Each structure stands twice: as C-alpha cells, then as structure tokens.
Amino acid sequence: MQGTILIADAIATNRIALKVKLCAAYYHVVQAEDMEEALACLRENPPDLVICALTLPGGGAADLCRALKASPDTAQLPVLAIGNSDQAVDRFTALEAGASDVLLKPLDCTLLLGRARSLIRARNAADEWEMREDTTRALGLAEPAAEFTARSHCVIIHSDSAVSVNWANRLRPQLRARLTLATPEEAIRAAANGPPDAYVLVLPNDPVPATAALRLISTLLANAQTRHTGLLVVQLAPDAALAATALDLGADDLMTEGFNPAEMALRLHAILRRKRMTDQLRDTVRTGLKAAVFDPLTGLHNRRYALPHLDHIAEHAVETARPFSVMVADLDHFKGINDRYGHAAGDSVLVQTAERLRNNLRGMDLVARIGGEEFLIVMPGTGLKDAEKTAAAICADIGNRGFVVPGTPQPIHVTISIGLSVGPMEEDGHPLSAEALMARADRALFTAKTHGRNRVNLSRPAA
C-alpha cells in the first residue's frame, strides 16, 4: 500500500466514489461520516492524508484543520478538502485554517491522485527529518531554535515582465517577504547571490510551452543551490494533467485558477513555514552531529549515530507497517590494499567508496561507516525488490570502475560484498528488532564472503 487515507464525508456515495479511485491506486482507505467519527479515527490511528468535505455534521474542513493543529501528534497531517464551486467562502476559510488544498467538484481523478501523491511524499520526507532530529536529541546534541527569523525572499518566474510587476505590486501588501522577478531563463542565475526561499513558477496558457516550462522544476530541484527552495506552480488556465505532472516533478503547491493575491499569499506563507521548519531540522542534524557522529575520513555517519537512528527507523516501520531494508557492506581483501599500496592509498579508496555509496542512494537513506572497511546502509520505505536492485548497483559501481589513487601507476581494482535483510516483519508476522535485522544482514554478508565475494546475499529466515 502507498499509504492510509481517511475520507470524511457525510454522503455515503461520495465516500464510496473516492474509495474506489484511491483503492485502485493502492491506497488503504478508512472512512468517517461526521466530525466526531473523523476525530476518533485520527486519535486511534493517524493516517497519512485526510480527504474531507468542506462541510460535515458537527463542523467542517476548517474545524478539522484547527483540531489537528492543536495536537503535536497531528499538527503536520495534510488535509485535502473537497467542495462545490459555490463554496468560495468555505474554501478560503479552509485554506486559512491550514488545509493543503481545496479541490472542487466534479473531481478530476488525475489531479486528485497527483495531489495525494505529493502530500503523502511531503509528509514522509518531513517524518524522515523529524526522525533524524529525534536521534540528535537522544544523543544530547540538539541546538536551541533560532530566535530571529530573517525576512523571506520569493522569486516570481514569468515570461511576461509587465504581468510579473503587476502581480508583485498586488502581492506585497499581503506577504511579508522580499519579492523579485525573473524570466524562466534568469531563474537559475537569480540564485547566484544566494538561493531564494520560494519560487512562483507561472505556466503559460498554451500546453506546449507550459510543458516546456515544467522542465524548470527538475532543473531547480537538481541544482545544489536551489534544491531546498519551495516551489509554487501557477496555472493561468486549468489543466489537470499538467497540474499532476508539476506535483509529481516536485512542486510543493499548486494554483490552478490563475492569480489571486490573497490565496497566493496563504500558499506562500505555508510553503515558507514548512521550509523554515525543514531548514531548522536539517541545520540541527548538520551542526549538532558533525563533530560527534561523523566519520572524519569519509564524512559518513559513524556507528554512534547509525545504531540509534536505525532503532528509530525500525520503530517507525512497525507503527506504519512500511518495509525498510538494512545492508551491511564490506570491501573485499581490503587489508591487501593497505599492505601493497600503503595506508594513504587505503584511505583514498575508503573516501571514494563513501562517495560512490552516496551516489547510489536517496537523500533519506542512511549510509554509515561502522568499521574499518565496513558500511551500514538503511533504506526507509524500501522493500526487497528495490533494495536488491540498489545493492546490485552498488556492487557494480564499486567493482566495475577502478580507484584512481595518487602514487599508484594503475587504478586499483576493488570489489564489495553486501549482506541484506528486510524488515520489520518476520514470516510469522512478528516484527524483528533493529538489532536482529542488522545481525541477519551481518550473517548474510559472511555468506557472501564465503561464496566468492563481490556479491549480494539476502538473509533467509531459519527454517
């Protein structure tokens, strides 16, 4: 399953229609018909996303958002509201209360599913950073939150500079931020003196240039300077397919009905608030752990950080019933490299190995050096098939390219062996501890070593 979604709607046929669409996309769906039942479901087992009618018996989407914000356990839970075109006031009230978006009937399935994917992906990413902060706090290395927040900077990207000027003039009274303007060609150059906090990317009316403009999303997210910048996409005319594509490419939010200064200010405030929170979490991890829990040679996390973080991931996996993968990797015959070429050459191989490991993993994955030439890899939300694919790619990347080391006439050929285990569930349905999964991966590594090295071996449960 891709996640759990709570549908809150008083009309049974609405709930059934939504459930059919979501189940077909492999979501687990739970239902509530009024505010009281919805809140009970949320307290008992918080979902990944709430889809709520604008009005409900006992309240509405705005009331539900306020109730969620009142509890730290549900404050970051995304809410997608559903309403009618004649509910403009209720729609804006829901957005003000914290709803991620309000979709109007008749619902477009492409846009609905695109929104669901985007919101759940953002929630999972936030959870991952919060788990990393939990690890930092457990080690006593967290820093206090900054008391001063600098004024935010937003860039409006529009091919028509006159329209951009008009939008900026109407937006400034409602947004406490510095606004600058750029054409699509200028967007990357605009970050040369420091990346902005958010971009507003305006798509042209014509589908062909609009599709071309969407490529800028990938460019911004791939750029080291701008990959953490918030992104609001604005459509001048509705196009569900383009909207879903923008969200899947990584846009943080979307406006489908053109420019509305009040709504744009609301959405930018939400994007900037989330970015500040994520930046603070990222800075806490970076500054609080660097000296104590990073390996000074490779720049990877060390054992002191990795084992508590693995415990957090295992606990979260049990709570959410999502898989995660654990790998223990070890360079083959590494002692021979030190003996033949010297320890400086061995250190160079370790540094390059760390870089290759990072290049084959996602940003949310953990890779740590836990011994001389031994590495631990943890991949949250990853099942067996994807884990095996990643492990095979790592083996190929290490073994198929020589290591260029200063002072050696030819590249040094090195291979790596990997033991793999997948949690949290054992075959009998009982969760395995992080320690047990790591021990299994370690035994699988031993088997890989004894069967010829340069291979991946999967841990098999005892009969």
Q: What composes the largest sheet? A: 6 strands, mixed
Task: Give the total of beta strands.
Answer: 18
Structural class: alpha/beta
Mean pLDDT: 88
**N→C terminal distance:** 28 Å
Percent helix, as a range, is 40-55%
What multimeric state do the chains show? single chain
Kindly report the spatial arrangement of strands forming the biggest sheet.
13-15-16-14-17-18
Overall 3D geometry? globular
Strand portion: 15-25%
Low-confidence stretches: none
Global Rg: 25 Å
Helix segment count? 14
What does this protein look like?
- The model has no long low-confidence stretch (mean pLDDT 88).
- Strand 4 (55-56) and strand 5 (59-60) form a beta hairpin.
- It contains 14 helices and 18 strands.
- It has helices at residues 12-24, 35-44, 61-69, 88-97, 109-138, 161-171, 207-222, 240-249, 261-293, 303-320, 334-341, 343-359, 384-400, 434-450, and strands at 4-8, 28-32, 49-53, 55-56, 59-60, 79-83, 101-104, 152-157, 177-182, 198-203, 230-235, 253-255, 301-302, 324-331, 366-369, 374-380, 416-423, 456-458.
- It has 463 residues and is of the alpha/beta class.
Layout of helices and strands:
Elements: E1 4-8, H1 12-24, E2 28-32, H2 35-44, E3 49-53, E4 55-56, E5 59-60, H3 61-69, E6 79-83, H4 88-97, E7 101-104, H5 109-138, E8 152-157, H6 161-171, E9 177-182, E10 198-203, H7 207-222, E11 230-235, H8 240-249, E12 253-255, H9 261-293, E13 301-302, H10 303-320, E14 324-331, H11 334-341, H12 343-359, E15 366-369, E16 374-380, H13 384-400, E17 416-423, H14 434-450, E18 456-458
Helix pairs in contact: 3-4, 5-8, 5-9, 5-10, 7-8, 11-12
